[in-house]
Amino acid sequence: MLIDGFGRKVDYLRVSVTERCNFRCQYCMPEKPFSWVPRENLLSYEDLFKFIKVGIDEGIKKVRVTGGEPLLRDDLDYFIKLVNDYKNDIDLALTTNGFLLPQMAQKLRDAGLKRINISLDTLDTSRAKQIAQKDVLSTVLEGIKKAKEVGLKIKINCVPLKGINDIDVLEVLEFCKKEGFVVRYIEFMENSFAKSSSKGLNSDEILEIISKKYKNIVKVPRDSSSPAQYYKLEDGYEFGIIEPHKDDFCASCNRIRLTAEGFLIPCLYFEDAMSIKDAIRANDIDKATEILRLVLKNKPEKNKWSNEKDNKVSQRAFYQTGG
Ligand SMILES: Nc1nc2c(ncn2[C@@H]2O[C@H](COP(=O)(O)OP(=O)(O)OP(=O)(O)O)[C@@H](O)[C@H]2O)c(=O)[nH]1
Ligand SMILES: C[S@@+](CC[C@H](N)C(=O)[O-])C[C@H]1O[C@@H](n2cnc3c(N)ncnc32)[C@H](O)[C@@H]1O
Ligand code: SF4
Ligand code: SF4
């Protein structure tokens, strides 16, 4: 079992397979980075898998593949199958912007993927274009449809921004309710790579919008395996809000992240990281395990987004960390 320096059990590994992306979301990667990590610096699927096995053998129960945009990396279905075939009871999932799902959904399902989280900030074509800086909505909706058709269980991620897609909060909820998807709203996390004018809605503001139509929203007891706080409408529909600005958000953190370059990142906010690349490439499993334990020992207690006194802008890029 993996326990961090604050006694939290860590059983969720998020693996970013690429930092590259085909969108330029204003809250994540509004500008193309000055340079990408050269391909030879990336860990191969086999090496990423080697580390995932280390994690699973140490107690990881949930693995999420993310990016950048993970579907941009060739043969992602091959990687999904490697992990799925190793231990079928691992909760294996993928987070994607959905743009390449029309052609990839069936392959991913065939590789053993069961569930998928797809980003959808608005159902309005021009606002989707404004956020992603590309005309994406119709293809993303086609991708969502395809994912549903092939039997993937779907959650939708939506980042509401003030003055942009705050007016879409209810429409996204209605869409998800109708389609049988869970929606989670994510509070915008300030970081130095995002467009500086971006301002997110906090969970109270999101709840206020939803409660204009739905009365008596009830808070569901927190399930510590997920970062989202869930809320229930009177008709039984549940939606989530990811609330990193709340003081107690990190108390149940069970997550660690591996980047495509082989850096283990203990927290989404901070820049600390240790590389497992050399150990993994040398097949030194003991060393990789030692680094994993050390990173967990030094995992921070909490982020600084929730702390009024501190600088609340993280210097970490979401597209490198995988969110
Ligand atoms: N600050 C912070 N945000 C997180 C953390 N985990 C997830 N998030 C945010 O929530 C977003 C959506 O997460 P997903 O990739 O859908 O994964 P998940 O919420 O763990 O998914 P489920 O397993 O379906 O609950 C991430 O991209 C982050 O923006 C975390 O540990 N800290
Ligand atoms: C970094 S992306 C990677 C996966 C994929 N490209 C996607 O967009 O779903 C993962 C998630 O992070 C969220 N995200 C990115 N930047 C964020 C920010 N600054 N604050 C909150 N969420 C953010 C996105 O909305 C997305 O749901
Ligand atoms: S949020 Fe996802 S889709 Fe948008 S720029 Fe970041 S990595 Fe790309
Ligand atoms: S901000 Fe850091 S400590 Fe808090 S939940 Fe996210 S990864 Fe965990």
UniProtKB/TrEMBL annotation:
<dbReference type="InterPro" id="IPR010505">
    <property type="entry name" value="MoaA_twitch"/>
</dbReference>
<feature type="binding site">
    <location>
        <position position="267"/>
    </location>
    <ligand>
        <name>[4Fe-4S] cluster 2</name>
    </ligand>
</feature>
<keyword id="KW-0004">4Fe-4S</keyword>
<feature type="binding site">
    <location>
        <position position="189"/>
    </location>
    <ligand>
        <name>S-adenosyl-L-methionine</name>
    </ligand>
</feature>
<keyword id="KW-0456">Lyase</keyword>
<feature type="binding site">
    <location>
        <position position="119"/>
    </location>
    <ligand>
        <name>S-adenosyl-L-methionine</name>
    </ligand>
</feature>
<keyword id="KW-0342">GTP-binding</keyword>
<dbReference type="GO" id="GO:0061799">
    <property type="term" value="F:cyclic pyranopterin monophosphate synthase activity"/>
</dbReference>
<dbReference type="GO" id="GO:0061798">
    <property type="term" value="F:GTP 3',8'-cyclase activity"/>
</dbReference>
<keyword id="KW-0949">S-adenosyl-L-methionine</keyword>
<feature type="binding site">
    <location>
        <position position="64"/>
    </location>
    <ligand>
        <name>GTP</name>
    </ligand>
</feature>
<keyword id="KW-0408">Iron</keyword>
<dbReference type="GO" id="GO:0006777">
    <property type="term" value="P:Mo-molybdopterin cofactor biosynthetic process"/>
</dbReference>
<dbReference type="InterPro" id="IPR050105">
    <property type="entry name" value="MoCo_biosynth_MoaA/MoaC"/>
</dbReference>
<dbReference type="Pfam" id="PF06463">
    <property type="entry name" value="Mob_synth_C"/>
</dbReference>
<comment type="similarity">
    <text>Belongs to the radical SAM superfamily. MoaA family.</text>
</comment>
<feature type="binding site">
    <location>
        <position position="28"/>
    </location>
    <ligand>
        <name>[4Fe-4S] cluster 1</name>
    </ligand>
</feature>
<keyword id="KW-0479">Metal-binding</keyword>
<feature type="binding site">
    <location>
        <position position="21"/>
    </location>
    <ligand>
        <name>[4Fe-4S] cluster 1</name>
    </ligand>
</feature>
<feature type="binding site">
    <location>
        <position position="155"/>
    </location>
    <ligand>
        <name>GTP</name>
    </ligand>
</feature>
<keyword id="KW-0547">Nucleotide-binding</keyword>
<dbReference type="InterPro" id="IPR013785">
    <property type="entry name" value="Aldolase_TIM"/>
</dbReference>
<feature type="binding site">
    <location>
        <position position="25"/>
    </location>
    <ligand>
        <name>[4Fe-4S] cluster 1</name>
    </ligand>
</feature>
<dbReference type="InterPro" id="IPR040064">
    <property type="entry name" value="MoaA-like"/>
</dbReference>
<dbReference type="GO" id="GO:0051539">
    <property type="term" value="F:4 iron, 4 sulfur cluster binding"/>
</dbReference>
<comment type="pathway">
    <text>Cofactor biosynthesis; molybdopterin biosynthesis.</text>
</comment>
<comment type="function">
    <text>Catalyzes the cyclization of GTP to (8S)-3',8-cyclo-7,8-dihydroguanosine 5'-triphosphate.</text>
</comment>
<feature type="binding site">
    <location>
        <position position="68"/>
    </location>
    <ligand>
        <name>S-adenosyl-L-methionine</name>
    </ligand>
</feature>
<keyword id="KW-0501">Molybdenum cofactor biosynthesis</keyword>
<dbReference type="InterPro" id="IPR013483">
    <property type="entry name" value="MoaA"/>
</dbReference>
<dbReference type="InterPro" id="IPR000385">
    <property type="entry name" value="MoaA_NifB_PqqE_Fe-S-bd_CS"/>
</dbReference>
<feature type="binding site">
    <location>
        <position position="250"/>
    </location>
    <ligand>
        <name>[4Fe-4S] cluster 2</name>
    </ligand>
</feature>
<dbReference type="InterPro" id="IPR006638">
    <property type="entry name" value="Elp3/MiaA/NifB-like_rSAM"/>
</dbReference>
<dbReference type="GO" id="GO:1904047">
    <property type="term" value="F:S-adenosyl-L-methionine binding"/>
</dbReference>
<dbReference type="GO" id="GO:0005525">
    <property type="term" value="F:GTP binding"/>
</dbReference>
<keyword id="KW-0411">Iron-sulfur</keyword>
<protein>
    <recommendedName>
        <fullName>GTP 3',8-cyclase</fullName>
        <ecNumber>4.1.99.22</ecNumber>
    </recommendedName>
</protein>
<comment type="subunit">
    <text>Monomer and homodimer.</text>
</comment>
<feature type="binding site">
    <location>
        <position position="253"/>
    </location>
    <ligand>
        <name>[4Fe-4S] cluster 2</name>
    </ligand>
</feature>
<dbReference type="GO" id="GO:0046872">
    <property type="term" value="F:metal ion binding"/>
</dbReference>
<feature type="binding site">
    <location>
        <position position="95"/>
    </location>
    <ligand>
        <name>GTP</name>
    </ligand>
</feature>
<dbReference type="InterPro" id="IPR058240">
    <property type="entry name" value="rSAM_sf"/>
</dbReference>
